[in-house]
Amino acid sequence: MNTSEMSTYKIGLFYTAGSYFLWGILPLYWKMVEHVSAEEILAHRIFWSFMFMIVLLTFKKEWKNVKTASQRIIKQPLLFFSLLLSSLLISINWFVYIWSVNHDNMIEASLGYYINPLISVLLGMIFFKEKLNLLQKVSFLIAAIGVMIMTLHYGQVPWIALTLALSFGLYGLTKKMTKLSPAIGLTFETLVVTPIAAYYLWLIFSNGKAEFLAFDISTNALLVGAGIATALPLLLFASGAQRIPLYMVGVLQYIAPTITLIIGIVLYKEPFSTIEIITFSFIWSALILFTLSNSKYLSKVEIRRTRKKSIGL
After folding, report:
1. Is residue 293 within 8 Å of residue 139, measured between CB atoms?
2. Which of 254, 256, 268, 299 lies closest to 102, judged by CA?
């Protein structure tokens, strides 16, 4: 790994970790509009995300690149299909997450994002032939045991957790395959579902069932602001995920559910039993082990690079 590759790697880590931090505190945002139905929040989230991206692309003078990307999509059916799939996956993920947070299922939602790294690792090994060293394999085994303990504790299929894990894991895979710039990729993804969202908003507004514009300024502002709250971490994630291996994306994923778990327990007093404590301990032990393993790997790479440079290779 040369200096340029190391710089790219560090930037990828920073962007991806930042996106997960923002996702971790996002429940605080959705709780402020919990009086609005999950369906309406989702529709606003999609619609205003698209509007925000239009403004952003205009500000950055990216429309020439949008035209080029459009031509690519037209010529490459696989790319078009990947965009359709990513739009569907992220919409499902958004809806289930909003619903779970506003129905006091924050802990199960965090379980879903603890499972997600295992999904990411599996997808990385299947589609990109990514390999793990021994310590990394052990760390993921420990994490898997922790997730299994919590899953068995539920006594039933945790559909919220599994839906969140699978939808976002597959979404991450599609982002690795499309290779569009983060801003343009997100614009096309939201473009696909914006007509559906706009029609739904018009429908509930015409029937007098919409919370938006119902004389509540704070609710209106929060629903419009959902576009920025949605787009910003997604842009960071898309930009970061293209710079680092998929298994590292999976490891950083632990940041978001940990923050969400703490918020659920401390602020919203969701029950947290001994089983959850054991699971939490397993997962954080795995994360510490993986971090140490990765640090040692990078140190060895840097030592080899320095030696080669010193002998003129």
Report:
1. yes
2. 268
Choose between 293 and 223: higher pLDDT.
Answer: 223
Tally of domains within the chain: 1
List Cβ neighbours of 67 (8 Å cut-off, separation of 6 or more): none
Q: What is the mean pLDDT of residues 56-71?
A: 90
**Cα dihedral angle (205, 48, 106, 159), rounded to 10 degrees?**
80
Alpha-carbon distance of 172 to 57, in angstroms, equals 23
pLDDT 10s digits, 98-114:
999 999 899 889 888 87
Residue 178 lies in a domain: yes
Show the tokens assigned to 22. Answer: 């923002």
> Mean pLDDT lowest for which of 197-201, 246-250, 305-309?
305-309
User: What is the distance between the alpha carbons of residues 130 and 122, in angstroms, rounded to a whole number?
Assistant: 9
Q: Which pair of structure tokens corresponds to residue 133?
A: 């060293």
**Start-to-end CA span in the chain (Å):** 14
Count CB-CB contacts under 10 A for residue 121.
Answer: 25
pTM value is 0.81
Q: Give the separation between CA 123 and CA 173, rounded to whole angstroms.
A: 7
Q: What is the pLDDT of residues 31-43, one digit of tens each?
A: 999 999 999 999 9
Residue 168 buriedness (CB in 10 A; 0-12 / 13-18 / 19+): buried
Domain with 171, as residue range(s), is: 3-130+156-273
Answer yes or no: is 266 within a domain. Answer: yes
For the chain, helix (H) and strand (E) counts, in that order, are 12, 0
Q: Does residue 146 lie in a domain region?
A: no
Place of tokens 């998929």: 246
H-assigned helices in 32-158: 38-59, 63-75, 77-102, 106-127, 134-154
Distance CA 227, CA 49 (A): 4
Residue 284's pLDDT is 78
